[in-house]
Amino acid sequence: MQKSQDSRDRGAEDLCTVSMRICQEGHANALALNKECNQIAVAGRSLLKVFAIYSDGFTEVCNMRGGKNQNLSYSSNDVAWSTLDSNILATAATNGVVSVWDLSRFGQKKQLHVYNEHERTAHTVAFDIHDPHILVSGSQDGTIKQFDVRNEKSSYTYYSNSESVRDVKFSPHTQYVISAVSENGTVQLWDLRKGDKSILQFTAHSGPIYTCDWHPTKNWLATGSRDKQIKIWNMDGKASLEHTIHTIAVVGRVKWRPDRIYHIASCALVVDYSIHVWDIRRPYIPFASFNDHTNVTTGIAWKGDNSQLLLSTSKDSTIYRHAFKDAVRPSSKANAQGASLGHRGDISFARKIKLTTTETVTHGSKINSFVRQRSSNHEDQFHLAQSDVCQFILKPSYIGYSLKEEITHLKEHECFIGCAKELILNGRKLVDICEHNANVTKKYGKHNATTLWNFVKVLYGSNEFGKHEIHRNSFSKQKSVQTLRRPAQITHAHEILQWDRNERNDNNNNDDMADTVVQLDMDSTVMGGVSTTSSKQNYPPFGSVILSETQILNEITFDNFDLLREGFIYVGPPDFSKMHSHQESALHHDVQAARPHLDLKAESKEASPPPNTPSVLKVNSAPAIPIWEPHQFVAESIMLQGDVGDVQTTISILIAMSETRKLLQIDDALVETWFQTYIDQLHRYQLWNEACKVMNLSWLRAVRELNQQSTSVHTNCGECGRSLAGSVGWYCQKCKSMQSSKCSVCGLIVRGLYAWCQGCSHGGHLEHIMDYFANHFKCPKCGHLCEYN
């Protein structure tokens, strides 16, 4: 507590943000502080200067690029200041040169040593915390070199087996141990006394790692990557992930905040110009942000043990000393209200509650003690607020699922794996596939997918949309939607609707007969569509039908409701437009009811008889009803599932629909993206068989050919660690030997299946390796912690 208070006292005298423009020709790539924290070194491609830090700004002390004879060795990517000697600096140049500078030298000749041993660009340099003479560097050539600044050549070279080493840091907890991060997403720990192999190696990110930093008090290592994540690793024993911070851009630098266990600062490599300070316990929103720079920040450093001052440089050619009191608090500006819609239709709503004076007085000592606690360490707390949560639940009759239904709450990856293994994609009829898959998705709680499978079953299960020709030459062989909907009491109505061709020919000669409207006897009863008042069947003229009042009421549906006018209902010639529609469903009724239908002609309304007249009306022409096709609706529903990340449902439905999916007209490029995303997810969960099945069922050539790509495994020599690419078999061109082809257990050359460790490059007979790792954990040849399962 005393240490933290002293730190705040030291920063209290300089609590203001100041800046300075440092270069007109270019920008800085890195910065470093001396051990007294009163000078700062700034390095760039056309810049290498030292500035003194004062309360009101910066003053230039030394410009090491002032001479005439300058070359690429002065173009710096990184700079480091010795932690024990304030006169010693080191820089890493773009041409691979590592330079050591002595500021105590007189004049412009301050270069003490020039190490030109890296074959490619040098990315980083770092001095040993415990030994002021030890310097290490990391390069694009995949090597780490150790230098003793008293000598003119490197002391040792460490091969990382990666394409590029981006950052190197000495551990403050273990002497001689360094951490190195690479562009292949791996982290390595090296003991400088044992240069043949790294003591620990693990994959930390899915993309290149650009920076790392050790925690000053805990054995934690922070890594920042192109995958826009900062990960905190516990390095006690085997590395374990403790925290993950999600940023909005590629992470370029990270620095732990002194005297604050859970605070870490970061800056982006592109896009984001701000510097963010994160509390690793709240990883989704920054604790504080500095928004002073107008271009990408390239270097950050805390001023020694002072947690209130942060130094930074940027591509805008400025250096800033930020006062923490001037930082923006994003959490205080965040929206304090939120709403969420559940799959059952329930809504959860959260809102902020403002504490009033009355509440403070009522709760007395409890509130007062809370306020005192907040004011004592205000700098270390997030924006504090009280909230209230309300939940609105629909009745079971509206949501389609019983509240008493037992639902197993599974994790998201368990639902994904279960659906991937149980979903049926082909081999059955579409109706059976949809019904089975709807039950599977309902079992795993994916109710949106369940609804979509049911839609596909109803809309495409009957193959109605495959019919493109409608035969119109026979009225008796076709049924309209109205005929399909008639109840059981008029099941034989088709006997009345069948017109005798001869009688029709006779009726054609009599116009009056063709215009006759047959009056219904409301008191008579019709059994099976045949009147009981007469034993002889009197067929009505063409365009008319005899129905009772009860049957007329039963005939009123959503489809023909618009045909009901002043007590009359149209039951004349069949409406051929409805023959294009699909089978009846509740969805079809709702859509048809919601569509605006064309009204009958005004002449028909004017010619309608009074209300108390016979209840049958003959209409010569039926209004055209537009045909509703569900293709666009289903396509938008599938694309919505893809937008929310459920590519499993989108791909499964498209595969199950087979040739019918062509009606949806979804862009092949979008479908290919869904395929690649789904296959990648299956690979991440090691569902190799399911992924292979999806590839084989794909109709896109680029997806089907994925099985034929990336089938080679790149191996390394077990002796020197060099890649065997381009070599014949297991022959190493550097070692001039075939030692890697021998079994690490029995020592004989392996013929047949070969088990190989990517970490240490040793292997052997599959049976020997299986037997050995049944009782051991380390490599039989080098002691590496091989992961075999």
From TrEMBL:
Keywords associated with the record: Metal-binding, Repeat, WD repeat, Zinc, Zinc-finger
Superkingdom is: Eukaryota
A Pfam family the protein falls into: WD40
Q: Which CDD domains match?
A: mRING-H2-C3H3C2_WDR24, WD40
Q: Name a biological process GO annotation.
A: positive regulation of TORC1 signaling
- Which residues, if any, are the signal sequence? none
The answer to whether UniProt assigns keyword Zinc-finger to this entry is yes
InterPro entries assigned to the protein according to its UniProt record, in alphabetical order: WD40/YVTN_repeat-like_dom_sf (IPR015943), WD40_repeat_CS (IPR019775), WD40_repeat_dom_sf (IPR036322), WD40_rpt (IPR001680), WDR24 (IPR037590)
UniProt GO molecular function: zinc ion binding
For this protein, the record's SMART domains field holds: WD40
Q: Where are the WD repeats?
A: 115-157, 158-200, 202-243
One Gene Ontology cellular component: vacuolar membrane
Record-stated family: Belongs to the WD repeat WDR24 family.
PANTHER family, from UniProt? GATOR COMPLEX PROTEIN WDR24 (PTHR46200:SF1)
| Name of this chain's protein | GATOR2 complex protein WDR24
